[in-house]
Amino acid sequence: MNMLILMALAAGTAPDRMAEVDRQQQVIWASSAGPAAQTARAPALAALRQVGTTDDAAGMRAQALLLKWGSDRDAQAAWNWLVTRHRDDKRLAPILEGWWDGSALPDATGQLRRLAAQTLAPEVRASARLLLARRDLAEGRRAQGLAALRTLSRTAGSTTSTLMGAGDPPRLANVASAMLFQAEALSPGAPLPAITAPTIDGRRPDPADLHGRPMVLDFWATWCPPCIAALPRLKAMATANPQLRLVSVSGDDSPKTVQKWLQRKPHPGVHLWTGPSGRVSSEWLNSAYPFYVVVGGDGRIIGTATDVADVEQMVSRAIG
């Protein structure tokens, strides 16, 4: 889950309960995908259900993790708890943004629409409308989604969002603009836009490294546990497919941080740096790290993803 979300929920709670949530979150992040992951996560989810009964920041954060990682039943129970108790609490906004897909909830779109109409918190209302626009795009209501994003980009005011993955929370209006960019410029079949980020040693990237072969753009940061957990699978993809190019775009505060990290843990491919608020981050990202763009050998986008498992499927299509 986005580190900004965790910071937003960390204030004002008993340290022992928050420490317990921290421990169980690490267990969940360390678990891999697949059937074995469900078994590994079961004790952590059980512990979170206990912490989630407290009506404080630790309880909210436990419910947020259950919403994202729990069973369908966990997700619906967590949603009901959060919306019943904290519908008008601005801390609900980052929880929504950490859960945006709502795949485990029946009628997720309808539940978001009702929340947007009923909440008294402008932060929650704006976040719900942002996520509804994203669902509209994902579910084929393109014109409706784009219109909503254009409205939010003009009217969201000073409300911030945790959907961008690093640095200080940006204005939600800027996130809406980034989502517009992704919907229009990063849609499947579109030519890959120019990548303006420098390499981690300050050079302009070699154009030959960014064209002419299938490629995975990996927007990541050294402080992001899900990003780090995905690196072995990305490396395995590159090993199995020598024609595949990995291009890592770091959102760390300094390129030196990335250089030092790579000295300890080498990773193949081209390494670029944009920083938490650089132009590439601001334009390309509308979600927390990691974020991936898969490109075919013809330079056209195959798709975008936030889960490395989806990247593996797209790479298999790109390689043929």
From TrEMBL:
Name listed for the protein in its UniProt record: Thiol-disulfide isomerase/thioredoxin
Keyword entries, A-Z: Isomerase
Signal peptide: none
InterPro entries xref list: AhpC/TSA, Thioredoxin-like_sf, Thioredoxin_domain, Thioredoxin_ResA/DsbE_sf
GO molecular function (one): isomerase activity
Domain of life of the source: Bacteria
Domain Thioredoxin span(s) in chain numbering: 186-320
Gene3D superfamilies to which the protein is assigned, alphabetical: Glutaredoxin
